[in-house]
């Protein structure tokens, strides 16, 4: 469901290269990646609320990356739990009424001098109230805390709250690089090559796996401006959206394509099927997602797309039962991506379809999703030590474009003591080599790589 700018973008070209080198080309044709769209004018979306920066100082990278080596290595963490779906028999109008009563998201918690003096004890002492507030509000923005200015303090914070780390839902897919593996901390999208890319609202989830909670931390804000962290309440978006559109999307359901492979449309059918079979057999199993390889669903001749299974755009929260907009169309709809800054190669561009007909979402429907979503965005001025603690089933997140260098990171968490929800799987070690190889390839990209800007 939620693939933060298409983690398949490197794996599928690799698979087709393997096919090409095996001699399975036609008339010397190569599998070139090309864009068949001329993008409209790109404008960065706005936000409903934009807090002021406070310009609080941080630590040097050498300091903030220090791990407490006296603590155990967490690299054997839990697998991300399976997605909890409770989306049947939803009365849309009643669901909107319920969602409209939800408290404001995010809740802002600002550190006092005495709070900072307490360090991790502040979080241990207030654990029950903070965990209750997280479920109530969907996200908590901790501002001005000195403890979380470094890796070691960030871990102290989430351990004091007794949050149990797990792998990213897309850990096995690549583009999921650890900041500190032993501290269960992933690097966010800080790559300079993608600083000109606007990341729309999404939850870190697929139809198959969804983390329960997340803790996004700022170690260094963008040195030359921008890079606000975006958060929006899925309940507020649900209440805001046009009722007829919600009823239509709920009835028809949606499917999301997570990558494109453009091959010459003149290739014989048996060659196309060979490519499809190779990608399906050699690549898809390496990704812990339910994908179907489909040709030309977005109307582009010769395009092979990896498409997730049908899902509801509305879900009930697993704990509270609150109906929420649980959907990534704001991030993945092509008609929205083509109208805002985007630094993703064509191979990694996503699309959203009505599941019953596999037509792409209309521009009118995309614009209503954009309007309702962006009305409820808070564009956070996160500074060193700030953490956004997120209920991943309630709040959606994203990131604005930035200039210069930036360092944010995130830890994902599974369910607490509910073993049925948490599952019993540990880290899928056999997939980690692919993850590291893809990240190494991405690190080769030049700082100003913007292949999709033209």
Report on this model:
- The chain is 28% helix and 19% strand.
- The chain has 454 residues and is of the alpha+beta class.
- It has one domain: Clavaminate synthase-like (Double-stranded beta-helix, 4-Layer Sandwich), CATH 3.60.130.
- The longest helix has 14 residues, at 269-282.
Q: Secondary structure elements and their pairing?
A:
Layout: H1 11-21, H2 61-64, H3 92-100, E1 107-110, H4 113-118, H5 120-125, H6 127-137, E2 139-143, H7 151-160, E3 165-166, E4 178-180, E5 185-187, E6 199-202, E7 213-220, E8 229-233, H8 234-240, H9 243-252, E9 254-262, H10 269-282, E10 291-295, E11 303-308, E12 314-316, E13 323-325, H11 329-332, H12 334-337, E14 351-354, H13 363-375, E15 377-380, E16 387-391, E17 395-399, E18 407-413, H14 419-422, H15 432-443
Parallel strand pairs: 1-2
Antiparallel strand pairs: 2-16, 3-18, 4-5, 5-18, 6-17, 7-16, 7-18, 8-15, 8-17, 9-11, 9-14, 10-11, 12-13
Briefly say what this structure is:
This protein is α+β, with helices and mostly antiparallel strands and 454 residues long.
In the CATH hierarchy, what is the architecture at level 2? 4-Layer Sandwich
Mean pLDDT, all residues = 85
> What is the number of independent domains?
1
Total helical segments? 15
Briefly note the structural class of the backbone: alpha+beta
Instruction: State the major sheet.
Output: 8 strands, mixed
Named CATH topology: Double-stranded beta-helix
- Overall 3D shape: globular
CATH superfamily, by name, is Clavaminate synthase-like
Q: What low-confidence regions span 5 or more consecutive residues with pLDDT below 50?
A: 1-35, 437-454
Strand tally: 18
Per DSSP, what share of the residues sits in E-state strands of 2 or more residues? 15-25%
User: What is the rounded distance between the termini?
Assistant: 27 Å
Determine the fraction of residues in helical runs and give it as a percent range: 25-40%
CATH C-level: Alpha Beta
Radius of gyration over C-alpha positions, nearest whole angstrom: 21 Å
């Amino acid at each position: 469901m939620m693939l933060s700018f298409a983690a398949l973008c490197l794996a599928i070209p690799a698979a087709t290269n393997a096919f090409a080198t095996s001699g399975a080309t036609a008339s010397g044709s190569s599998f070139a990646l090309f864009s068949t769209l001329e993008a409209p004018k790109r404008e960065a979306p706005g936000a409903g609320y934009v807090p002021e920066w406070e310009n609080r100082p941080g630590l040097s990278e050498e300091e903030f990356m220090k791990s407490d080596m006296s603590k155990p290595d967490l690299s054997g963490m839990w697998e991300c739990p399976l997605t909890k779906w409770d989306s049947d028999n939803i009365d849309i109008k009643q669901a909107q009424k319920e969602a409209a009563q939800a408290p404001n998201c995010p809740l802002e918690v600002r550190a006092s001098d005495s709070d900072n003096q307490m360090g991790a004890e502040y979080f241990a002492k207030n654990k029950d109230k903070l965990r209750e507030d997280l479920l109530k509000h969907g996200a908590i923005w901790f501002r001005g805390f000195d403890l979380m200015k470094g890796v070691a303090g960030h871990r102290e914070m989430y351990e004091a709250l007794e949050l149990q780390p797990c792998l990213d839902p897309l850990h096995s897919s690549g583009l999921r690089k650890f900041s500190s593996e032993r501290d269960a901390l992933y690097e966010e999208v800080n790559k300079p090559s993608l600083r000109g890319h606007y990341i729309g609202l999404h939850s870190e989830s697929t139809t198959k796996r969804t983390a329960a909670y997340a803790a996004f931390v700022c170690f260094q804000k963008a040195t030359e401006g921008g890079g606000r962290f975006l958060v929006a309440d899925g309940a507020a978006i649900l209440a805001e959206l046009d009722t007829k559109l919600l009823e239509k999307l709920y009835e028809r359901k949606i499917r999301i394509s997570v990558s494109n492979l453009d091959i010459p449309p003149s290739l014989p059918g048996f060659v196309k099927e060979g490519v499809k079979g190779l990608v399906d057999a050699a690549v898809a199993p390496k990704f812990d997602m339910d994908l179907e390889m489909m040709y030309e669903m977005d109307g582009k001749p010769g395009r092979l797309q990896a498409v997730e299974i049908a899902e509801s755009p509305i879900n009930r929260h697993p704990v509270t039962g609150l109906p929420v907009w649980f959907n990534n169309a704001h991030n993945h709809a092509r008609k929205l991506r083509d109208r805002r800054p985007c630094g993703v190669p064509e191979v990694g561009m996503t699309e959203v379809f009505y599941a019953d007909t596999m037509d792409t979402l209309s521009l009118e429907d995309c614009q209503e999703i954009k309007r309702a979503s962006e009305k409820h965005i808070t564009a956070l001025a996160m500074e060193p030590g700030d953490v956004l603690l997120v209920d991943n089933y309630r709040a959606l997140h994203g990131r604005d474009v930035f200039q210069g260098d930036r360092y944010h990171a995130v830890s994902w968490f599974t369910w607490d003591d509910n073993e049925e929800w948490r599952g019993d799987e540990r880290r899928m070690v056999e997939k980690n080599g692919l993850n590291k190889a893809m990240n190494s390839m991405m690190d080769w990209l030049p700082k100003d790589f913007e292949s999709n800007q033209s």
